[in-house]
């Protein structure tokens, strides 16, 4: 574990990617290497392993699961409020978020790390449940969750031997928790590309899920078009389970129309090729996109390249250094997610 002195050098992480030059520096720097290696190692750790596979739960992993259980309890303590002014973005999310943030130091105290290290790792933790002000969620918040786990790895709270359990127990639990949060508070998609994106909210279930299936004896990418196979295999394989979930939200239209990118990928011959493509796509569509990475945070555990832009000053209007995308893949136009639409009812459009 990092020494006390090293932990005391930790600090609450801040934004450092403010423009394309910063993004290029990030892609050439240590932080990118740390994130990419961590994702790839997790991916490899679950190759050919179903969710039901026996994995050893270390005390640290068991406690991380308890932390997520507490977040669910906090969710239950903050039910949605009457919100006639909007069909999505329930204001009760703010009280949920505030309570998670407030309890973060206490939840991390059991790790026996210094206060500064708790502050740094904890920031990634509560940022992984969505944006308090915009009441939205996207792949950048999912990345914050992975960075929280990476920070715990850097602090040697979790070890490489924990990786299968991190994906098959912790990450799977996080996905189910986020579905609950998304459906309760009607979180907007942060940077959704609509039907032309992979998913409104998540990317990694497809990446890790395709690794689970690389050498499967019977299942092939084309089988995601078969509802019976999705029903039989969805509980054991993230990829199948997530496609099943999307189909349940959009039962009146086919996969081809509501998720054409996922349908196109089903034409790939092998899961190995799908997994390889998912890794490349994650690097290109998440780690290399300014509208997503401009929100990423750097501290001591996940360091910025020194020549990146200075962090915005405390109290500075966040929008002053915020780059908006012409194509609404950043803050975007306020549209309900598929989860919200499934609750409020679809309003048919001519191209639906």
UniProtKB/TrEMBL annotation:
Q: Which GO terms describe its biological process?
A: mitotic spindle organization
Q: What is its EC number?
A: 5.2.1.8
Key words of the record: Cytoplasm, Isomerase, Rotamase
Q: Which CDD domains match?
A: PTPA
Q: Which GO terms describe its cellular component?
A: cytoplasm; nucleus; protein phosphatase type 2A complex
Query: Which leading EC class covers this enzyme?
Result: isomerase
The UniProt entry lists the main location of this chain as cytoplasm
Q: Which InterPro entries match?
A: Phstyr_phstse_ac, PTPA_C_lid, PTPA_sf
The reactions it catalyses are: [protein]-peptidylproline (omega=180) = [protein]-peptidylproline (omega=0)
Q: Name one GO molecular function term.
A: peptidyl-prolyl cis-trans isomerase activity
Q: What's the superkingdom here?
A: Eukaryota
Q: Where in the cell is it found?
A: Cytoplasm
Report the sequence similarity comment from the record.
Answer: Belongs to the PTPA-type PPIase family.
Biological function: PPIases accelerate the folding of proteins. It catalyzes the cis-trans isomerization of proline imidic peptide bonds in oligopeptides.
User: What is the official name of this protein in its record?
Assistant: Serine/threonine-protein phosphatase 2A activator
């Amino acid at each position: 574990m990092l020494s006390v002195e090293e932990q005391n050098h930790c600090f609450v992480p801040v934004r450092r990617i403010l423009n394309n030059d910063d993004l290029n520096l990030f892609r050439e720097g240590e932080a990118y290497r740390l994130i990419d290696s961590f994702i790839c190692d997790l991916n490899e750790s679950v190759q050919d392993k179903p969710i039901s596979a026996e994995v050893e739960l270390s005390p640290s992993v068991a406690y991380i699961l308890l932390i997520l259980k507490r977040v669910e309890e906090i969710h239950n303590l903050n039910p949605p409020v009457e919100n006639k002014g909007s069909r999505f973005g329930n204001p009760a999310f703010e009280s949920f978020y505030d309570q998670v943030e407030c309890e973060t130091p206490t939840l991390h105290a059991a790790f026996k790390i210094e206060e500064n290290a708790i502050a740094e790792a904890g920031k990634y933790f509560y940022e992984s449940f969505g944006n308090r002000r915009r009441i939205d969620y996207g792949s950048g918040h999912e990345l914050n969750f992975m960075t929280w786990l990476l920070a715990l790895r850097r602090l040697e709270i979790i070890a490489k031997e924990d990786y299968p359990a991190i994906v098959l127990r912790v990450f799977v639990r996080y996905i189910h928790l986020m579905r609950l949060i998304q459906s309760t508070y009607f979180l907007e998609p942060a940077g959704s590309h609509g039907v032309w994106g992979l998913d409104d909210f998540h990317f990694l279930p497809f990446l890790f899920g395709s690794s689970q299936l690389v050498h499967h004896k019977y299942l092939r990418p084309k089988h995601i078009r078969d509802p019976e196979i999705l029903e039989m295999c969805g509980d054991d394989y993230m990829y199948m389970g997530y496609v099943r979930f999307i189909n349940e939200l959009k039962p009146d239209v086919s996969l081809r129309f509501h998720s054409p990118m996922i349908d196109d990928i089903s034409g790939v011959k092998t899961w190995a090729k799908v997994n390889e493509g998912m890794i490349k796509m994650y690097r290109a569509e998440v780690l290399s996109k300014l509208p997503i990475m401009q929100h990423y945070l750097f501290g001591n555990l996940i360091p910025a390249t020194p020549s990146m832009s200075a962090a915005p000053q405390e109290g500075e209007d966040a929008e002053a250094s915020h780059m908006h995308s012409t194509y609404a893949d950043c803050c975007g136009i306020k549209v309900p997610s598929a989860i919200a639409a499934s609750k409020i009812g679809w309003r048919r459009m001519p191209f639906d």
